[in-house]
Amino acid sequence: MLIDLALKYIWRRRGRALLTIFAVAVMVQLHILANSVLSTYRQDIQRQLAAFAGKVLVQRLPEDTPEGAASGNFVNAHSSLDLATADALLDLPGLDAQASSAVLLAPLARSPMPDTTPALLLVGITPGRETAYLGVFQSAAGALTLPDAHSAILGAGAAEHFAAQPGAQITLLGQAFTVAGVLEAAPSLFNNAVLIPLETAQALLGREETVSAVILTAAQVEDMPGLQAQLAAQYPALQAATNEEMLRSAGTLMSQLDSLSSAITATAVGVGVVIIMIVVVQAVLEQRREIGTLRAIGAHHWRIYSLVLSEALVQSLLGAVLALPIAVLILRLAVGWDKFTTLLPTWLESIGLAALIGVLASLLPAWQAVHINPLEALRYE
Amino acid sequence: MNPPIIETKDVWKIYGSNGVAVEAVRGIDLAVQAGEFCALVGPSGSGKSSLLHLLGAMDTPSRGEVIFAGRLLAQLSDAQRTDLRAREIGFIFQTFNLLPMLTVWENVEIALRLGGVPLAERKQRASALLAQVGLQERARHLPSSLSGGERQRVAIARALANRPRLLLADEPTGNLDSQNGTDIMKMLRVIAEGGQTVVMVTHDFRAASYADRVILLRDGRLRGETHLEGAPDMQQTVERLFQLGL
Amino acid sequence: MLTHALLGLLRCQPMHGYDLKHALEQALGGNREVNFGQIYTTLGRMERDGWVQVAERSEDGRGKKTYEITSLGQQELTRWLSEIAEKPAPLNDAFFSKLLVQRIAGEGSPQVMIAAQRRAYLQQLHAVTVLAADPRLDPVTRLLADGAALHLQADLHWLDLCEERLAAPVND
Ligand SMILES: Nc1ncnc2c1ncn2[C@@H]1O[C@H](COP(=O)(O)OP(=O)(O)O)[C@@H](O)[C@H]1O
Ligand SMILES: [Mg+2]
């Protein structure tokens, strides 16, 4: 192998190599960034879906709602049910009444990402039936019940937003509320939620006659299919989403996210390959005479190939190593994201990606280098 | 009689550049026996380098055959010819062609590596080779800090690294002043006297006079040859030098 | 040349024959012995011509003479040094004469003659090249050796020309 020689060649043009490594690092960190953000988001969706296990969300979407539009956010703010229908639904047999409730949903603050849970989500819910929405999640502080008309339960994210603890006063749409309890850290749908009594919410939003949706929980898990069948028979105009259906539609979103992430990765690889290829093609051009000499004194093709491959790989791998600190820095500074649960595996994966970049980038220059004639050593005299 | 180390049979090299064919080598028959020190002398452009590249398995003839130790070069694969250059043929260039990024020692070591010598042996042999050309003190220097004569000595050590059966040299003194040129020729002479087969190409009769066999080349053809035997009698030479005037 | 070398030595100081021999040998780098008889006869001829004169005769039985340069001798030395040195005319090349005669007589072959001559020149060239490279060599002889090498190279190139014009190649 001629790796020592490759390192010396890189050292000879270290200024250029540094720029190349930096450019590759930027490309690889793009992959890390996209993957981290998207897979964090993906986990969030999955946990939300898990939290909805055993529940049916009944909504009536406006006629013009496109197919699958509700997929990401299971709860659609445009959905509207009249109170009579809501009451009838809650009277269906086989329900766990404590865990079933009509809800009124309204985004209070938008999320920076489209099609995701709002940064603050107002949830009007019948007091005493908070578990219909909160499900299995536990309290971090205070109680998860709404004691009076102007009390509120905050998700962890919402609590952070208001900097509020149980007992504190917050103002929503001009109305003061007392914080009754704060939820443990949970997926965004819960994390960003602000629960207040349903009637208060209806009054605040001027929607006394309607709710957004009804959350139904079957008393027994095996009652679910019957419940669904009944809903389908009696209320064909309503959309009843179970956690399985949500999973299915979320699958569409997730595969879209996957394609997006793959597209970003492919772009990163493509640009990385081009950058390294340009640099290594130029390097081979400058090394023609030396490569010719190596051929003349008996270097086989594979040695020349390994020389060029090493030059490409060293730069692409160093780029990958440099990509992690850059990605962390960007996530911290620009996005303020501090949940890097997937960062390390993504980074390890990007080492592999960098190796791929190196190999692909070396193909053209290696082909050129391998075809350098031993007589090349004797030209340019 | 053993087969020659290197032999050509009616070998031609014709370069075709933009429709103009240049006949650089025109039907040369040459046979060099083991142990010979052979000089090919001719003016610039007479096809010396072209012929040497054919002998060194660096180029392929347009016509005719080149036979190395009984093996027809045309029948060898590129990899086999590369192996030949690595192990059995040492090449010395007019322009030294050392690898500028590598130290003197590494330049010799890399040749051993290409010859497939194991690491431990490489270390010891590279140093021994440098000692042989009197450069052990410069082992850690880069070629750029060496004089032309020293660089050519490194190149000789490199060419000899894998104990080749044939040593080829293309104008080894062409880029050197006369003192350094003479030192290199003395070194080649010593190497040849150790039994090494050497084929050298030069336009310099002084360099050629160190060989045992001087072959004249002109316009791509051989023009006769001369065998030079025996060391010159120095005392007699000195006497002769003064004869003219005194 | 011997005449003028002796004049040059005597210009520095008067000397007797034996001193002159030593001084001359030293000036030539100490490689060559100069014939004493030759010095003796040359001195005699120079005395006759009035270029040198006897300055002193030793009183011992052998009567050793110390010579000194005369003003006539000084004039001759100056004239000789300023005169351009002539080389033998090109037509005087011995090998060329042989080629010429071979052509006239139609005997032998120019190819064989050229090949033999080339071999001799190459051998001589090797000798002077090796000599010039000898680090123990005195500078005078080295200059001569390098000069001889250059001449021989020119002769070898000229042989090529002769061969090209007169003969087809031949191996010896
Ligand atoms: N790669 C080449 N392409 C075209 N012509 C060449 C090439 N190499 C050499 N020649 C020509 O072939 C002739 C012989 O060249 P070369 O073998 O280098 O001679 P020498 O080494 O004796 O000077 C010259 O006329 C030269 O211009
Ligand atoms: Mg040449």
- Report the total helices of chain B: 8
Largest interface: B-C, 34 and 40 residues
Strand elements of chain B, count: 10
Protein structure class of chain C: mainly alpha
Count of alpha and pi helical runs of chain C? 7
- By DSSP, the count of extended strands of chain C is 3
The end-to-end span of chain B amounts to 50 Å
Tell me which CATH architecture of the largest domain in chain C applies here.
Orthogonal Bundle
In terms of quaternary structure, what is this? Answer: heterotrimer
Largest sheet descriptor of chain C: 3 strands, antiparallel
Radius of gyration of chain C: 22 Å
In the sheet with the most strands of chain C, the strands line up as 1-3-2
Secondary structure: elements and pairs:
The complex is a heterotrimer of chains A (381), B (246) and C (172).
Chain A lengths: L2 H10 L1 H38 L3 E5 L21 E2 H8 L10 E9 L10 E6 L5 H4 L4 E4 L8 E4 L1 H7 L6 E4 L2 E9 L4 H4 L1 E5 H8 L4 E2 L1 E5 L6 H11 L4 E4 H44 L1 H9 L4 H35 L7 H28 L11
Parallel strand pairs in A: 4-9, 6-8
Antiparallel strand pairs in A: 1-11, 1-12, 2-10, 3-4, 3-11, 5-8, 6-9, 7-8
Chain B lengths: L5 E12 L2 E13 L4 E5 L6 H8 L7 E6 L2 E2 L5 H10 L1 E4 L11 H11 L4 H14 L15 H13 L5 E5 L7 H16 L3 E6 L2 H4 L4 E6 L2 E7 L6 H10 L3
Parallel strand pairs in B: 3-8, 3-9, 6-7, 7-8
Antiparallel strand pairs in B: 1-2, 1-4, 4-5, 9-10
Chain C lengths: L1 H11 L2 E2 H11 L8 H14 L2 E6 L7 E5 L1 H12 L11 H12 L4 H23 L6 H28 L6
Antiparallel strand pairs in C: 1-3, 2-3
Helix pairs in contact in C: 1-4, 2-3, 6-7
The structure holds adenosine-5'-diphosphate and magnesium ion.
Adenosine-5'-diphosphate (ADP) binds next to strand 1, strand 2 and helix 1 of chain B.
